[in-house]
Automatic annotation (TrEMBL), chain A:
Molecular function as annotated in GO: ATP binding; ATP hydrolysis activity
Organism expressing this protein natively: Marivita hallyeonensis
An annotated GO cellular component: plasma membrane
Membrane-traversing stretches: none
SMART domains for the chain: AAA (SM00382)
Domain of life of the source: Bacteria
The protein, known as: Amino acid/amide ABC transporter ATP-binding protein 1, HAAT family
Keyword match Nucleotide-binding: yes
Alphabetical UniProt keywords: ATP-binding, Nucleotide-binding, Transport
PANTHER family named in the record: CONSERVED COMPONENT OF ABC TRANSPORTER FOR NATURAL AMINO ACIDS-RELATED
Source lineage: Bacteria, Pseudomonadati, Pseudomonadota, Alphaproteobacteria, Rhodobacterales
Keyword Hydrolase found: no
Domain ABC transporter: 5-242
Pfam family, one: ABC_tran
Matching SUPFAM superfamilies: P-loop containing nucleoside triphosphate hydrolases
Automatic annotation (TrEMBL), chain B:
Keyword Disulfide bond found: no
GO biological process: amino acid transport
Membrane topology summary: Multi-pass membrane protein
Protein name: Branched-chain amino acid transport system permease protein
CDD domains linked: TM_PBP1_LivH_like
Regions crossing the membrane: 12-30, 37-55, 61-79, 86-106, 142-160, 188-208, 228-254, 266-286
């Protein structure tokens, strides 16, 4: 299995603060890389660098191709899609239209009725995976923060994203919701994709990740299978400060 | 009573052109969250190119119309490149101020190129006036109404049923969300500018062809009418721009009839003042509770 994502010597500075300090990381195709670490350790910065929103030093290759010079929409069109801790959705467009805006499936100005019906069915299938099908025609206002994050994931799912960057998808979820999310991810979202999962919940990281990297103050302090990394006492101590821990 | 209805009819005809101007402003404001006050002057450049074609080669309305569209488009692209694309998204005031500078530049340029007070513009083809039950609708007014209606239909189809419209609404809704999607924000903003220019050019064309003559002050006039209609209707709302344009037209017509031409402007600015105090969100802003129709 080749590496889908190859990060070498990635460094990001905010003034005098080192948000990412010479991070090397290799994520194999169709695996899930968990990213853990205390608040402010550089987890979200890593995602922002990968989407092209923060300019960083170092090299980033996606499927063997350097992408550091690409703009965020160019990266999105390559299939690099992210979700947010605070979801970014279109609040004045219906949930189905939110899905459609992400899809941008055709270059044609207008769509014939049959193409439209096919697209709608595809979008509704995506919503159904995350249990949002029944509210397709409503505004996102009525969704909880957690459900908005599900909508973002449904959006990423239907776009055929190849590299998914998930920023704490389970934050604020009840245990039952987290279980549902974990199931939807395992069955639908993860298969056939490379995923970078930033998460605080250790149970979720253990259940979903192939590998786990732990960051502290922008530096990589641990890497390996979740069980081997989480067995290290220094890592456990580092992650103890988190709001939710195993 | 008949007067009231007749004035309303006249007002709707004038208001439909105002509505197009307001929609042009709203498209740009909605998508970019920035005000292009040189919008009126860009249309003015268009109709002067139309008038030039007319005067130079005694071209008819069709050729003048084409020249108007091209002129308005080129002037708009010039403004977009200089005042909007070149200035970063968060500096809304800088864009507005620099669009004011371009306004002055365009107005002075046209004044120098066309030194006369007025310039002839080809008139609309004669259509029979309509008289029903004591009400009168001039052929010109009918043509203006029909053309504006057609533009609105096309625009509606484009905005709510095309992919470009979806991208435009997405960007108007949340620039933050659009920034992490596949949407090419710069391209959508540029095309929105072009679309607004074409819609404005239709309004300019209809007004210029109704009057049969134009002046460089048309830019000021169009910016004022469009801005007032947009503010009465509600900033950023397309439905508001349409309503605002019609309300402005009707109020002008009634004020002119009952109070005289001198009082007309006073009444219009009084209405704007009242709207800003009583309905700060505009007519549509208050009723529209954030449904998807808000561009």
């Amino acid at each position: 299995m080749g590496a889908a994502l190859e990060i070498t010597d990635l460094t990001l500075r905010f003034g005098g603060v080192l948000a990412l300090d010479a991070v090397d990381l290799s994520v194999a195709s169709n695996t899930v890389m968990g990213v853990a670490g205390p608040i402010g350790s550089g987890k979200s910065s890593l995602i922002n660098v990968l989407t092209g929103h923060y300019p960083a030093q170092g090299s980033v290759c996606f499927q063997g191709r350097p992408i550091a010079h690409l703009t965020p929409p160019e990266r999105a069109r390559l299939g690099i899609v992210r979700t947010f801790q605070t979801p970014r959705v279109y609040r004045r467009m219906s949930i189905l239209e939110n899905m459609r805006a992400a899809l941008h499936a055709t270059r044609h100005l207008f769509q014939g009725p049959s193409a439209r019906r096919r697209e709608d069915a595809h979008l509704r299938d995506g919503l159904a995976v995350f249990g949002l099908d029944h509210v397709a025609h409503e505004l996102p206002d009525r969704l909880t923060q957690f459900e908005l994050r599900l909508l973002e994931m449904a959006r990423a799912h239907v776009t055929g994203a190849r590299l998914l960057l998930l920023d704490e998808p389970a934050a604020g979820a009840t245990s039952e919701e987290a279980r549902q999310l974990s199931r939807a991810m395992t069955e639908h979202l993860i298969p056939g994709r490379t995923v970078v999962l930033v998460e605080h919940r250790i149970d979720l990281l253990r259940a979903l990740c192939t590998d786990l990297v732990v960051l502290q103050a922008g530096r990589k302090i641990g890497f390996g299978t979740p069980d081997s990394v989480l067995a290290r006492p220094d890592i456990r101590a580092c992650l103890m400060g988190d709001p939710v821990d195993a | 009573m008949l007067d009231l209805v007749q004035n309303t009819l006249d007002g709707i005809a004038a208001g439909s052109a105002y509505a197009l101007l307001a929609i042009g402003f709203t498209l740009i404001f909605g998508v970019m969250r920035r005000l292009n006050i040189a919008f009126g002057p860009s249309i003015m450049v268009g109709i002067f190119l139309g008038a030039w074609v007319h005067v130079q080669w005694s071209a008819g309305l069709i050729e003048a119309a084409l020249a108007t569209f091209i002129g308005a488009l080129l002037a708009s692209i010039y403004i977009e490149r200089l005042s909007f694309a070149a200035i970063r998204g968060d500096a809304a005031l800088a864009s507005m101020a620099s669009s004011f500078a371009l306004w002055m530049q365009l107005e002075q340029g046209v004044s120098l190129a066309f030194p006369g007070r007025t310039t002839a513009f080809p008139t609309l083809p004669p259509l029979p006036d309509i008289q029903i039950a004591g009400l009168f609708l001039g052929g010109d007014d009918l043509l203006v109404l029909l053309s504006a209606g057609l533009v609105l239909l096309v625009l509606h189809r484009l905005i709510y049923h095309s992919h470009f419209g979806l991208e435009m609404r997405a960007l108007a809704d949340s620039a933050e969300a659009a920034a992490v999607s596949r949407i090419n924000i710069n391209r959508v903003a540029f095309l929105t500018f072009c679309l607004a220019a074409l819609v404005g050019a239709v309004a300019g064309l209809l007004i210029a062809a109704t009057d049969g003559q134009i002046t460089p002050k048309f830019g000021l006039w169009a910016t004022m009418k469009g801005l007032i209609a947009m503010m009465i209707g509600g900033l950023g709302s397309l439905r508001g721009a349409l309503l605002g344009g019609l309300v402005l037209g009707i109020v002008e017509a009634q004020a002119q009839w009952y109070l005289g031409a001198a009082a007309r402007e006073i009444v219009v600015y009084g209405l704007l003042f009242l709207c800003l105090i009583v309905l700060p969100g505009g007519i549509a802003g208050v009723r529209d509770t954030g449904a998807e129709r808000k561009l």
